[in-house]
Amino acid sequence: MIINQESCIGCGICVPYCPAKAISVTNKKASIDRDACLECGNCVRTKVVRCPKGCFSEEPGLYDGTRAVRRFFSDPMTTHSVTKIPGRGTEEVKTNDATGRVCRGEIGFALEIGRPCCGTTLAEVEKATMLLAELGIEFEECNPLTHLMSDRKKGMIADQYKNEKVVSAIIEFGTTFDQFIPTLESIKRVAEKLNTVFSLDVICCYEEDGSLPVMPVLEQLGIKPRVNSKVNLGMSRPYKIIREKKEA
């Protein structure tokens, strides 16, 4: 983002709205630290910030280079022109009853690296993807982060993107239930390597008796899930139909 220096009156209204703390006011003029800016768009959403002079605008050529990924991984109002896939990740468990991506006997994982309060770099995200790739997993094809990798088997992000900063990026993949514990152990190693925060989503299906098979394992490993879990209501196509199609 850029600020029109001729129009800016240095009121400072915009400063607290920047999650990256990239905006500052000096000599009655606001300016943006280009390196720190995540291109999240908070400062141009006039209904939120209400810049009295309308000083904010997108940087010319923003969508032409690698910096574009900052916008696409940080601004929820955009659709990727680089990866051609919207959002930071897919719908994950939110639509699992319709997509059947995760069925009984399978576990889905989503790691959201970085958060709005601190952000991260794609080089930091690569630390996680490379450790997870050692398990031989396949990264989700419909996830935009996967399309920034130069080597999916090694989890390597393409060099031209590594220094770009984003609000967060979501790593998605699936595995079988018998690989649940080894995968969680690798994720613990990821936590030791990262210089930012991350959240972990574990996606599974209820058993016929209404139990969640992952719960005893999480308890055994000392991992306590948050109570605000997302639960499908089963109001779409039954996942068993999807399973039959997968096996056909």
Total DSSP E strands: 11
Q: State the end-to-end distance.
A: 50 Å
Radius of gyration (Å) = 21 Å
Percent of sequence in beta strands: 15-25%
Q: Which structural category do the helix and sheet elements fall into?
A: alpha+beta
* Helix percent band: 10-25%
Uncertain stretches: none
**Strand/helix succession:** EEEHEHHEEHEEEEHEHH
Sheet with most strands: 3 strands, antiparallel
- Tally of helical runs: 7
Task: Give, in spatial order, the strands making up the sheet with the most strands.
Answer: 10-5-11
Global morphology: elongated
- Mean pLDDT equals 83
Give a structural overview.
The chain has 248 residues and is an alpha+beta fold. Strand 2 (23-26) and strand 3 (29-32) form a beta hairpin. The mean pLDDT is 83. Helix 4 runs antiparallel to helix 5. The chain has helices at 46-49, 68-74, 96-99, 122-133, 180-193, 214-220, 239-247, and strands at 2-3, 23-26, 29-32, 56-57, 106-113, 120-121, 149-151, 156-157, 165-166, 169-176, 198-203. The strands form five sheets. The chain has a three-stranded antiparallel sheet with strand order 10-5-11.
Notable features of this structure?
about 250 residues; alpha+beta; about 25% helix
What is this structure, in a nutshell?
With 248 residues, the protein is α+β, with helices and mostly antiparallel strands. 23% of the residues lie in helices and 17% in strands. α4 (122-133) runs antiparallel to α5 (180-193).
Q: Which helices and strands, and how do they pair?
A:
Layout: E1 2-3, E2 23-26, E3 29-32, H1 46-49, E4 56-57, H2 68-74, H3 96-99, E5 106-113, E6 120-121, H4 122-133, E7 149-151, E8 156-157, E9 165-166, E10 169-176, H5 180-193, E11 198-203, H6 214-220, H7 239-247
Antiparallel strand pairs: 1-4, 2-3, 5-10, 5-11, 6-9, 7-8
Helix pairs in contact: 4-5
